[in-house]
Structure formats: structure tokens, C-alpha cells
TrEMBL record:
This is Uncharacterized protein. It comes from Craspedostauros australis.
Length: 172
């Protein structure tokens, strides 16, 4: 939500990024199947997303890198701004193009190129610091960190109260 009465935020999810087994483990089979299905049905997905965008009539698509939505916005003439410290195309490439998997590498390379093409249709791709290099994209612009300024807190007393232990070494 926003406190600006002149801004209307419309949440809309378009992709999975990567299916995860847990916080540190990618489900490659599930992710690969999703991307393969997305690739094989890409025109239909883009058409459906374009239709939904036309119904919403936004002034701009400001998004956290859903490549289908970016392609759809371009299709119906809606400007788009992508912003993220990563892009799914390069992550996908690392998992499904650079390394041998159960999926056909030629088809997965086509899917990768499809994602890059979609990302290239964003008017600009903002990269907050820190971010991936994204050398595969030509429409990126580095921006500084995007954070709320906080207050430094020494958590040692809280940890001592909770555990009774004064620590010098600990594992995160």
C-alpha cells in the first residue's frame, strides 16, 4: 500500500522466478517444467497479460521484473519500468543453459533468449545497489541503494537476556 492518494498500486503476479524446496534449494525439475511450459505457451501468456493490462489501463507498468508483463506492456503500448537487483533470464541461464539438465538445452536457450528479448522491451531496467552485473541487458541503469534509513542497534544485550550467554563467536 501507499500513503500517496495520487498513486494506485495494483498487485499482479506473473511468474514464479524459481520454485524452491526450501530457502536455499531450488527445485530444478519444477522450475524447469514451468519455464518450458511458459516458453511453449509464451504467445498465449503474453496475449492474456496484454488483455489484462488493457483492462487496467495503467499509465505505466512499474514492476519487479516479470518478463511476460513487460512484453505484454510493450505489445499494448504501455511504458514499463523494471526494477530489481537481479533478472530471471541470467539466473535461468545459470541453471538451465550453462549446466546439463534433464531439459533440452536448445529449447532452454530459446527460452532464455525470449526472456532477454522481453526485458529489452522495458523502457528502463533500474538496478539498485548491490545488484547482478546484467551485462546481457542494454537498458539497465544503476541506481543507489533503496532503503529506509534505520537506527543502529547493538543486539548483544538482547541476545544475552534471551540466552544468558555473553558471546564472542557465534554462527549465523
Amino acid at each position: 500500500s501507499t500513503t500517496d492518494p495520487n498513486l494506485c498500486l495494483i498487485p499482479y503476479e506473473q511468474d514464479i522466478g524459481l520454485s524452491m524446496i526450501d530457502a536455499m534449494t531450488c527445485d530444478l525439475e519444477s522450475s524447469g517444467r514451468w519455464y518450458l511450459d511458459n516458453h511453449l505457451n509464451y504467445k498465449q501468456r503474453v496475449s492474456e497479460a496484454a488483455y489484462k493490462l488493457e483492462q487496467l489501463q495503467p499509465d505505466v507498468l512499474f514492476c519487479n521484473i516479470p518478463f511476460v508483463s513487460i512484453e505484454a506492456a510493450a505489445l499494448v503500448g504501455i511504458p514499463s519500468v523494471a526494477m530489481c537487483s537481479l533478472n530471471w533470464a541470467d539466473i535461468f541461464h545459470g541453471y538451465f543453459v550453462e549446466h546439463e539438465t534433464q531439459f533440452d538445452r536448445t529449447v532452454m536457450t530459446e527460452a532464455y533468449e525470449q526472456m532477454l528479448n522481453a526485458y529489452s522491451k522495458a523502457d528502463i531496467f533500474l538496478r539498485p545497489t548491490p545488484s547482478m552485473d546484467m551485462a546481457s541487458l542494454r537498458n539497465t541503469q544503476e541506481i543507489g541503494p533503496i532503503v529506509s534509513e534505520g537506527t543502529w542497534r547493538d543486539l548483544r544485550d538482547i541476545v544475552f537476556t534471551a540466552t544468558g550467554c555473553r558471546f564472542h563467536k557465534f554462527v549465523l
